TrEMBL record:
This is Amidohydrolase. It comes from Halobacillus trueperi. CDD domains: YtcJ_like (cd01300). InterPro entries: Amidohydro_3, Metal-dep_hydrolase_composite, Metal_Hydrolase, YtcJ-like. GO terms for molecular function: hydrolase activity, acting on carbon-nitrogen (but not peptide) bonds.
Length: 531
């Protein structure tokens, strides 16, 4: 097939924006690029002068969780406790004793009909004798029922989770509210969905990816199914059924080095190995929590909560051992580190496995709070940093609560990292951040919310260029898959993953980047979405 009469947008390439080209697609690859009009004998599709660009690769998301929101009980829109109870009761026609009741995406901080955050006692208003689990909108907090807490008390390994992540009442007893890795433990150990359940949830999610031009994802899903084997089965069966319009790299979230050793003993596949569309990702390691809950590990106390500076999940020795074990077994690591103390811990561990960090392209996720000394060490080490610019839409006005004024210039320091040639990806953290890559690109370029606040951008010296933002969604994520010679570019020999856009990104005002629409999405030479 020849797609003729298209303009090509690809950052830092020689394609001229005022010229049109013809793209020859053969099977799953781009075979050739010609000047337009095409004069050969192949069948031609007229691109009508529209803009063609590489498709997007989202390097950090939770795709199964997003699909479950679409398939199961979605609480993201409820605005009160009374509404939440009604939605739960309507969703579950018969609340039988000891049934599990799940809900995701609530935000009780915005409820105006109760003067406290939900606890297990409140859930008794729904059903006393039921196992209930409700996840907060940001994924770092949950509330469970008293009946579910009885199960949790029998879990010996749960005692190893930090006490700071287990809320207590005035009598020192659990109140049913849990944070960070305690949340992950509950998700991972209390239930496991089948591969068929996962497939149905993914089918609900995948059209939304195609609509927004995403053809590759790196996703952390294991806690929502309970088994890496079942997770692998779900994705690869969709691939075999030709129902997977993306490439997927599947991370393996681990709690400790034992989890790593178990995986490596039971599986021969390592990072980058797998099928044509489904590959093994990283060992995912959580180093700290989140700033909203004051659990992200900071080197300074929180300005609005001087008694808190967060919590590191592991000692330095434990993390060093985990990173070394992963490196010795050819597994990439991706470390969640939001606070500067957690970033410092990640850097220290990576420095001790410096050659493996370069070879395996280890990652630090978020790195939202930095400082000059940390940037200097990152410059020498050059791990990949996975950023989520769309978080700034809601968080720019909150930064003063979490970070001393002197360090705010080093928050979400995208430009400072790129100046030091530290590789950077852009991502969504779906379903927490914005799914639409153009919303993320808009935020990276402008550093404002969607209404243009604050005027001139928050910490505008850290704005990314449009070109660098696109690279963070195309070529750089391909490097994390070890596929930079195969994906992320409009070039002969590369995978035919591309978009047709309604506007040329360089021909509109920066504040209008969020309005660009995907007209067509092509994955491996097939059109998987057309507006």
């Amino acid at each position: 097939m020849i797609l003729d009469n298209v303009r090509i947008y690809q950052p830092y390439q020689t394609y001229e924006s005022n010229r049109t080209y013809a793209i020859k697609v053969e099977g799953e690859k781009i075979e050739a690029i010609y000047d337009s009009p095409y004069n050969g004998e192949e069948a031609v599709v007229d691109g009508r002068g529209r803009v063609l660009s590489p498709s997007f690769s989202d390097s950090h998301m939770h795709l199964l969780r997003y699909g479950l929101l679409k398939k199961e009980l979605d609480l993201t829109q409820v605005t009160s406790w009374e509404e939440m109870k009604a939605v739960v009761e309507n969703h579950y026609d018969e609340l039988q004793q000891y049934d599990w009741i799940f809900g995701k995406g609530f935000n009780d901080g915005n409820f105006d009909d109760i003067d406290h955050l939900l606890t297990a006692k409140d859930l008794n208003e729904i059903q006393v004798n039921a196992y209930m689990y409700f996840m907060h909108q940001d994924g770092h907090e949950c509330v469970i029922s008293e009946q579910a807490m009885e199960l949790l008390k029998k879990e010996e390994d749960f005692k190893k989770e930090p006490d700071e992540f287990k809320e207590k009442d005035e009598h020192g007893h659990w109140n049913g509210r849990f944070k960070d890795t305690a949340v992950h433990y509950i998700k991972h150990h209390f239930w496991g969905r089948s591969a068929e359940d996962a497939k149905e949830a993914l089918k609900k999610a995948l059209p939304h990816l195609s609509e927004h031009g995403i053809t590759s994802v790196h996703t952390d899903d294991i806690n929502f199914i309970g088994s890496y084997e079942r997770l692998w089965q779900a994705y690869t069966e969709l691939e075999q059924e030709e129902a997977l319009p993306i490439d997927a790299q599947l991370h393996h979230y681990v709690f400790n080095i034992h989890d790593m050793k178990t995986y490596c003993a039971e599986n021969d596949l390592r990072t980058g190995h797998g099928t044509p569309q489904v590959t093994v990702g990283s060992f995912k390691i959580f180093l700290d929590g989140t700033q909203r809950l004051y659990t992200a590990a900071m080197r300074n106390p929180y300005p609005v909560e001087p008694s808190a500076d967060g919590r590191l999940i592991y000692t330095q020795e434990q993390l060093d051992e985990m990173v070394k074990y992963a490196s010795d077994n050819n597994m990439q690591v991706a470390m969640h580190a939001i606070g500067d103390r957690a970033v410092e811990q990640a850097i220290t561990a990576l420095e001790k496995s410096k050659e493996a960090t370069k070879r395996l392209r280890h990652r630090i996720i978020h790195a939202q709070t930095l400082a000059p000394d940390l940037i200097a060490r990152l410059r020498e080490l050059k791990p990949y940093i996975e950023t989520q610019p769309s978080f700034l839409l809601d968080e720019w006005s909150e930064k003063g609560k979490w970070t001393p004024e002197s360090l705010q210039p080093y928050c979400d320091a995208y430009q400072s990292l790129l100046k030091e040639h530290i590789p950077l990806t852009l991502s969504s953290d779906l379903p927490i951040g914005a799914l639409n890559p153009f919303t993320t690109i808009f935020t990276a370029v402008n550093r404002t919310d969607l209404n243009g606040n604050p005027e001139g951008g928050w910490m505008p010296q850290e704005r990314l260029s449009l070109k660098d933002s696109f690279l963070g969604f195309t070529q750089t994520p391909a490097e994390l898959e070890y596929k930079e010679e195969e994906k992320g570019k409009i070039e002969p020999g590369y995978q035919a993953d591309f978009l047709i856009l309604d506007k040329h990104p360089e021909e509109i005002e920066p504040e209008k980047l969020k309005d660009i629409k995907v007209l067509e999405t092509w994955h491996r030479g097939k059109c998987v979405y057309r507006k």
